[in-house]
Structures are given as structure tokens and as C-alpha cells.
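Contributing: when you submit paired examples, paste them exactly as shown. First protein:
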Amino acid sequence: MERIFRIGDFTFKLCYPEEISPPENFMKFACKGDRYQPMEGLEDPMRQTDICALAQRYPIPEYTYKIEVSDHLPQPDGKIAARRPDLLVFQNEAGESRLIGIKGSPDYYACYREVAPKQAEITLVKDKISDLHFDPIFTSLLALERQLIKRDSMVLHCAYVEYKGKAILFSAPSETGKTTQANLWEKYRGSRTVNGDRALLGRIDGRWTAQGWPVCGTSEVCSNEAIPISAVVMLSQAKENHAERLNPGRAFSLLYSQITANKWNAEAHIHTLDLIEAFVTDVPVFHLGCTISEEAVECLEKTLQSLDA
């Protein structure tokens, strides 16, 4: 099987055997035939650029991923650059290789290897095929953040909601209340959640825009849409609601903690830091200490309205 996908500014071909089926959310980023399937919301010019026109600048896939299934994983060559419970990273002349696992499991389920400047090969353990319907497991095969940072895009851990045609991104460590606050805004202000767990941050026509991402966590809410960002809200739990706009230094620190960054890759890491610095210069970042109540919505709403004052 061969399919072409587009995530943010990255167009790529994915070659995989018939026994593999990409998850439903990943397929939302598939191109139809030889043409890119445009994101939702194109009818409103205030919400996003015509992604179709943008895609015409990249009519040919820029990268190719080839997935094969095997009983055994190859051993990557090169120097170990990073080691985590679920990931072992190697660097060599061809680029980067990874042994990919799941936290809590002793074995790796896949091997990712960059074999040419525009091609990577992924070997998947045969008995793990059934697990690929989980979005994070499938998406981790492709190391997409490596290609997206080259295109000035970053993945942010957040609940991505649309409110009055603009994106508000609620970000915080897991279990802090991102989904809860997004749901409160839906209930009391009629907002709409675009992705409950991730957003791709990139510029469209020079403006920072929240774009779709094929992983949505337990929220099960995943749409392929691009919406200009009005604010990022860093959350913490509190007994009383209070909101404030953060200075760029504090905003940088909190945002960095929730951005996917390959710290072992010096060039990519420095570029990520530069992008975050540019982002916090252009986009207001707030802190909301909050309860689970309509009062939390009112508190943040008043602070956001100060942007228009």
C-alpha cells in the first residue's frame, strides 16, 4: 500500500504492507488521490489560509517512510544519543535510528532507521500489529517531530479549542485539567474542541496557527483544522481562580516544558528554543490557576478580553 499524507507543511509518502491499517485519526491527514485533501474551515478566510493553494507548492512528497513487518528487529548502527524507558536513539552518518517501545514493557516494538536524506525504514514486530490502532503507537513509528522542526513547526501538549474563530490552547502536565477546562468552555461559552491532547504550532502567512495532529489522547477528539492562535493558557489547579499574562521569560519556561523537543539533537534543539522564543514574542501566554467551575471560565474570559481593550 502507498498513501500520501500531509501534516502541517510536511508532505510524505507512507508505504506499508496490507496487514497494517493506519489509525482513523491518522487517515484524516491523508491526501485524496494525487491531491491534498484540504482542512476543514476553508470557507472562512479569517480562520486559515487556503491550504489547497499552499499544498500546490509541494505537489510531490518530500519524504518517504517504508514500513515492513518482521519477527525480529534490526540492531541500529551508531552511537547512542539518548536512552529512555520507551526509546533508544542512535546517531550515525545516515542520520538517526530509534528502537521504540512502550513504557512499562521490557521489549521494543519497532525500529526506525533513516537510510537516505529523504527516506526512513521502519521495522515492526509482527505480534505488535494489533496495537497500531492506538494513535501514539502508530505515530511514534515515524519520528515526525524530526521533520516538522525543520519546517518551523512544534508539537504542543494541549487541549486545542476554537472560540469565535480563534484558537485557545490549554496546556499543562498530564492530569492537571486541560480537558476539564476545554469542556467547561464548551459548556458555558459554546467553544469547540479541535484536539483534546495535541496541536501543531506553525506559521501560515506569517501568523502563528494551531494545526491538527493525529494523536488526541483519551479525549478521542481529533480534527484536521488550522486556526489562528489568540492565546495559550498554562494551567494549574487552585482553590481560587486567578489569571495573569506571563512575561516572555516565564512563558518560555512553561511552554518549553510541554513542547516535544529532541534534546539529544543539538541543532534541532537550538532551533526549537529559537521558535519558542519567537512564539512567546508574538502570541500572548497566560497562567490560569483554576477550579472546576464556570467561575474559572469567567476569570479567564475577563483576562483574555483585556487583549482587545
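Second protein:
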Amino acid sequence: MNASKRLAIFDRLAIAIPDPQTELNYTTAFELLIAVVLSAQATDKSVNKATAILFPLANTPEKILALGEDHLKETIKTIGLFNSKASNIMQLCQKLLRDFQGQVPQTRAELESLAGVGRKTANVILNTAFGQPTIAVDTHIFRVANRTGLASGKNVLEVELKLEKSTPNKHKRAAHHLLILLGRYTCIARKPHCDRCPIHDLCEYPDKQPIDNLNK
């Protein structure tokens, strides 16, 4: 795919999704960090339900540590892998207080030093909380990037690096959420909604449904 087509794709997406934002509920960088850690192998909707209970009780490292691991587990037990996530969150809070004065760090390396935080989670925090032009490749972005031809790759890191290199500069900040939302609601895994895709004519997916067939 050439640069002009990539620019046209992101221009279209920016018009179709004028205010791309995460669907996780949060008010601080720390709340976002906890929400993203909880979101591994869970839906944003389920995380929002849990954090609606958790955050009024504890929404700082100090308060979560005071809450205790058992109470934390009870609060987030509706989310998959809640035992390991609770353990990671307790360790994460301890390290934030010990090494970062209780503040969420703003570099990938520092974020990845926290329990339960991998490259994808770090990229989400850097992008969403701190406005850095990172692209966290989840299953939606991996699918959309490969399917459309924006960035083909065999693994998420390969796709991430290609997207970071090829995404037009003016769209790098928003690209993460534009692609996630496209994949979550339009370019879905099974039977993508080609009939309402804003980039149908630009997409290089060989099995996309022709518009003429969709309108019959």
C-alpha cells in the first residue's frame, strides 16, 4: 500500500470517527492504568462495571494497598483472571510508591517495569494518558492492519512497528483508537460490515464484499 492511500484511509477514518477515545472509564492516569491492566482478556464493558465499584473505594496506589488484596479480588471477581490481576495490581501499586512517588511513569521502559504491564498496556497509557503517538496493537488492530493492507505482519510487534513507521504524522496520535473502533464495530472478525465501512474502496482485503452485492 502506498503513502497516498494510507493518508486517504486515515483521513476518511478521522471524518467517520471525529473524536476517537478509549471506551474504558477513567479520570486519572492511574485509573486508566488499572483499567487497562484489568482489560487483558476482558471486555471494556466488563472492566467498566468493575471499576465503577472499585474506583469510588480506591483510586490511588495508597488506597488500593489499604483496601487489601482480598478485598480487591472480591471487587474485581467478575473479570477473568481476577486473582492474578489483583496480585499484579498490588505489586504495581507498591512499586509506584517506592520508585515513582506514586505517579504513573511516562516512558515505556518504566511502565513495563510494573507488574502486569506489557508493551501493549504501556503503549495504551503513553497514548491515551500522555498523548504520545504510540500504537498498541490488540486483536482488533492486528486484524484491521492485516486485512486492509495497512500493515501486514505475522505478530503484533511486527504490525506495530510497521504502523508506527507508515502512519501519516498528522494521524499518529489518533491512529490507535481509530483502528480499534473500526475493528470493534465495522471490520469485525466474522462477516465484516463492508456495507458501512468508510474505507471500502481503499481497503485491499481480497475477500471484501462488493458494494453492488451488499446493496442487493
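If you have annotations for the second protein, write them as plain sentences, like these:
The radius of gyration is 19 Å.
The domain at 29-128 is CATH 1.10.340.30 (Endonuclease III; domain 1).
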